Every structure is written in structure tokens, then in C-alpha cells.
From TrEMBL:
It comes from Streptomyces iakyrus. Transmembrane segments: none annotated. SUPFAM superfamilies: E set domains (SSF81296), Galactose oxidase, central domain (SSF50965). This is Galactose oxidase-like domain-containing protein. The lineage of its organism: Bacteria, Bacillati, Actinomycetota, Actinomycetes, Kitasatosporales. Residues 1-30 form the signal peptide.
Amino acid sequence: MNRRRRSTAFLAVAGLTAGLLLTAPQSASAANLIKNPGFETAGTGDMPYCWEKSGWGDNDFTFTTTSDAHTGSKAMKVELTRRVDGDRKALITESAACAPVVTPGKQYDLSLWYKTTTPDAAITLFRHDTTAGWQYWTDLKTLDMAGGWTEATVRTPEVPAGTDRISWGVSVYGTGSATTDDYTMDQVPDPVLPPECTGTAEQCANGKWDVLPTQNPVRSMHSVVLHNGKVLLIAGSGNDESMFEAGTFTSAVYDPANGSYKVVPTPKDMFCAGHVQLQDGRVLVMSGNKGYPTADGRVGYQGYKDSYIFDPETETYTKTNDMNDGHWYPSATVLGNGDVISFGGLREDSTGSVTAELFSEAEQQWQPLWKVNQTWSYWGLYPSMILMQDGRLFYSGSHVFGNNIPGTGSAIYDYDANTTTQVPGLRNKDERDQSASVLLPPAQDQKVLTLGGGNIDSNPEANRLTDIIDLKQPNPSYVAGPPIPQGTVDLGNGPVPQTGNQGKMYVSAVLLPDGKVLETGGALHNRANPVYETSIFDPASETFDPVAVDPEARGYHSSAFLLPDGRVMTTGDNPGNGTWNHDVSVYSPPYLFKGPRPQITSVIDTEWNYGDTQRITVDRPVAKAQLIRPAAVTHSSDPNQRFVDLPLSVDGDNVDLNVTSNPNLAPPGWYMLFAVDANGVPAVAKWVHLQGPQALKATDASAHVHDFADAPKGKVTGPGKKRVSQKVSPTVSGCDRHYGSINVCVPTDFPAEVKKTTAARCEWLKTNDYGRLKVNGKDDPLNLDRNRDGIACGKGDLTRR
């Protein structure tokens, strides 16, 4: 994990302002937005007019205006003769006089001619934010080595909101040189034809939900989209103790192509395990349920140490070596080198695990404890740990069950330094239980959205909060986003409009190929009161657009995930009365009703490396392309979900895609490749395989690591005192086990509107279809068995004075 972070040092050309120019600027052509594109006009100092030196790090370099030009008499040569780290860039001067004006939401075609003696050169962009000033934007394209003059072309992503100018040029980050000339920049024309609606007006505006005719055969709470387009649905015992006692553990493989399900033998109770795709597309499944809580509530859930790998080709599980500790509800984050890191969960004795685990991609096994950096911190259950562009981990504050971790509830963890820095701004940090967090499109922007949540311990009404953080900032902090739109909520007598600040927990968030985010499902309280609301969030405008609503309840143990054809599938719902919703819904977003879909007619190569230029062909013009990592989701959590922009070079139906050089932006593995037209209509995805460690040996990706989140001012802590575990209450799941069977969840704390009387509590349980509840043991902490006959909420309990 390469985490070298440096401050970017710009070498400004002294006195280069519009009022001090000694030479008149060279006029640009009508289309070309670049001033002095061929370096022919001299400036003050030793750089041409409207060009400046930039760079950082420990290296020896020269900037030379050379006569070895493509056209005219001058070109710019940047050379590194020694490099320890960093880069050097010749960039358009970051000033109102020189930097091209751009329009938010538009795209621009960039072109230049170059010669290189190093493979370590790239087209790099900076943008001017009207509030925050100049900041790094992205690296668009790695330049192939070329001894003769070669043209490089690339299309920018859509210009972010608040951006009024950009600067760009070539960075050199390895020993050798890059000579460039004849820069051009043109705005991509707007599409001539508006989208053609191919459905009803309602479908074109809000999309459409369909409930599939065939039910899911297993009580799946884990969903993994496989690189063959099928979906692995893992149930284990399915939160059903009778299945656990019988040793009946199930998974199913769903095939969207024909709607079929295949039930797969499952060796262990993977109920509430962790999972992630490995580099080769197999699925690593870690820990799961070793035992259910005891009937008297004295012992809670237990997590085992076992780990398995599921092979999509054979559709079978194979055991790995054991983890160092048990982890019921663990995190699972794939790193830029293909390793997997995991935190949190419950141990074999029901206490909280403070052991970090590392699965080695190279060795294909969990590492022994002495090889893994430890903070001895308890991160809770399913902590959302998102990989940042420099290899650090961002804990977003999304988790499962009860209160958040101490402090601000959000943090940056640096594995190499073994330090944790608190990050401020997350609102109501102890009511983000079963919230969702996603790295917003594109991953290059390093923004995270966290939405919704509640608290199963105190059981308040779930909230509408959204918070957004920009990890590109040197001192990142969450800021308030727009509230989640309200829908209807079923309080026991059918759906009614939400009121006040009612929001939802158990929310799902899915990245869409048009660069937006679908949020759907949820409930108002702990495993009760489903909320029917679906919206699409636009990261560019930071606004929600309410759309068609999933007709099925999707609360606890539900999943939502993107299919390769651009639709979204939702499964599951497990309310507190122990029932399970086997119906499956599929959402067709509005973009599927906006005219014919483009097609990717060929992918020249499906094996990709970092820094590649890969060619595809399409049957009609496309505006953008991206890689979307397939889902591995459970309990509102998929920290590996990401949308990676692929800048374009377009030549008719041939489209060259420029792959990021930074594996922390796109960890190695299989991805869905989407191409999207100007109306946001995506092609059906093609699968491509992005290589990992092999590419890192050839190119040092540290040059593409900028000083994002480099100086967070929060409290910094190192590793604590070595310890065995964190004490965790047996009622961590928010259920009082004194009543009913194990898969029934009588809340330890009823919603605030329920009076603390036997009659009110029993009425709430009746309204939520709990049925007959046996009292386990002699204790009756909720006072539901007043006549002591062993049955909660019986007739005698309600009439007894």
C-alpha cells in the first residue's frame, strides 16, 4: 500500500499577470480555447506566455523551450534526470488571462502532440473552483512512449459544478523527458436531438418497478454480482434458528438472463458474514454465525474464524485458512494491491473483536497476527471502510447496531502509519445505524455521501440526514447535504405520508452508470414500519429527484444492487416478527426509456492494466465511459462500490479509453464497463479485468497521488494497549431474547410514541404481527407477562390490574 503524500509546490513565474505582459498574446483559433498553444509567444522569465512550471517532490529537472517542434519554431520539453518521488509539469498558467473558461456540465476535447523517452508521463488537469480556488482535478491519460511526434487526444469528464476555468498540461513522473507542442481544446457540442421517450410519460420521468414472477428460494441477506453476470445470494441459516440447529445452510445463484435460481451447497452458517471480490473474480467470504443468542439473553451472537472462497466457475465454496479471530458482521475492503483488510464484528465469545485481519492476494491466505498492524480499536459492526486515493481508509460513520464509535463518529485510518485521525461534521453520529455510504461518481472526485440511519437501542424515528465530505480537501469535514425526500410509511394500518423529520434506516444506495445514485428502501424503526420511497441523487447538483417506488417492503436484511444491463435488483425484508419477503423487484431507471441504447460492439482486449489506453467500438456516439465495480452488499453496506471515470478519445465509432494509473482508485479485479450517450442512456455493460500488482512494478503510481486530506486537524491516535476484545452487550442486535424464538425481535426499547405500559406495548406487537410469544425463562423485563403464565401479551396480561 503506497501512501506517500507530498505537498504540491507550484513554481510560479514571477510577475506574470495580465497587466505586466511585455508581449501581446497570440490569438487562438475560433475553436481552440488554448492561448499560445504552440509556445511561439514569449513570456516574462524563461517560460512562454500563458505557461508555468509546476511540480513537487525530490527530483532533478529542467524546463526547456526547444526548437525541436511539431510545427512552428518552438516546443516545450520537461525532463527529469533524477527522481526519488514527485513530478514536474508544464501547465497553462492558472490565471484569468490564460486559463480557459469552461462551463459546468460540459465536456471538452483535449489534444496535443508529443515525444517521450519515459513511460511515466500523463495529461494532468487542474480546475478553478469559484469558492475553493485552484485544485487538482484528475489525470486523464498516460502517454505511450514515442520517439517521433505523436498525437494524444482525450475527452474530459463533465466539468463539476462551481468550476469556471481549467488548467492542464503534461506531467513527467519518471526519469526521461516529454516534449509537447500544438495544444488544442474544444468544447464538445451538445447533442442535437433530445431523448426520444420510448415508454409512458411516467416511466420516462420516474422509471418503472417490476416484481419478478419467481421468488428468491433462499432467505438471502448477502448479494454479490459475479463477473459472469450472475448473482450470488447468500443466506446461511437465514436468521432462522431451526435452520441453524438442522445444519441447513443455503446460497443461491441467480441468472438474470433466464430468471432461474440454482441452490448451492453452503458449508457453514454465513449468516451475517463479510464478503468481497478478489482480483480473479472469486468471492472471499469471511466469518459468519457460530451461534445464536441463548434464550435467556445472557449470551449473544458469536462469530467463527472460518473463511471460504466461492468460485463463480464451479459455483462451489472452498475453505481458506482461519482468521485470527471471530468476526460476526465484519468489514471487508479490497486494497490497491489486491489485499483485503477487515475490522470489527463479534468474536466467538460474543465480545467485540479488536483484531484487524489482512488477506494476502499474493499468498491467498489470512496473515498471522504478527504480520498485521493493530490499533486494538473496536470499530463496531459492519463499519464502512472506504479506500481513499492514497491508500488510507475512510471510516464514513455508517455501521450497524446502536451507537457509533467514540469521538466524532468518522475517521481516516492510515494502515502504514497505524494512526487514526478523527474527521468532524457527521451529524447525529449516534443515529447513523444502518445508514448507507457511497464513494460518489466519479471516484476521482473523492467525495463520500452518507445518508439516513437510526439507532436500534434507543429506537428513535429514523432520520432524513445526508452528509457529504470532500476527501480532496487538506482538512476534510462533512457538510450537510439535502434531506432524503419523504415517502409513505406503514405504521401498521397501511402506508401513510411521512411527516415531520421522519426518514429511514436500512437504506440502500446504488451507483448508476449515468453517474447518479439510486437510494431506495428502508424503515422508520428497528425492524418495523417500512418506508416506501425511492430517489435519484445527482452528485453534480447535490439534489434528489423522487422516482417510482419499490412496491415491496425493503427493511432489515434487504439488498439493492446494479445489474450489468443497467437495471437495479432488490431482495429481502426481515421484520421483527421473523417473517421473510421472498419477492424480488427490479427497477428500470428513466434512462432505459430515453430512446435506443448505444451498444459496445467490440472490446479489443478484456485484460487491462493501469495506465492503459484501451479501444472499444460503439454503434453510435457516446459521451462518457466508466468502470463500475460489481456489488458485494449486505446491511446497507458495500464500501467497495465505486464508479471510475474513463476519459475518452473519440474517432468515429472507435473510442479509446484512458485507464487510471492509480490502483487505489480502481482496485484490481473485474469491472462492468459502461458506455453512456449524451442523454445518459447506457449500453449493456461488458466485463473487463483490471490487473493489479503486475502493473505496479512497471509504473510507480505514487506520482498520481496528490495532497488530498493531507492535514486533517482532528484528534490523532496511535495504537492502544494490546487487549483481547471489547465488551459488547448480548442485546447488541436491539432484540430482547426473553420473548419468542430467536429469529423474532421484540425490541429492547419500543418506539418513543409507544407508552411504557403493557397494553401499549402489546398493542404495538399485535399491530406488527408478532403473534403468540412464549416467555423464555423466569425474567420478564418488558412486563409483558403480568399473570406469569409464560405467554407474553395473553388475555390475562391485558385484563390484570
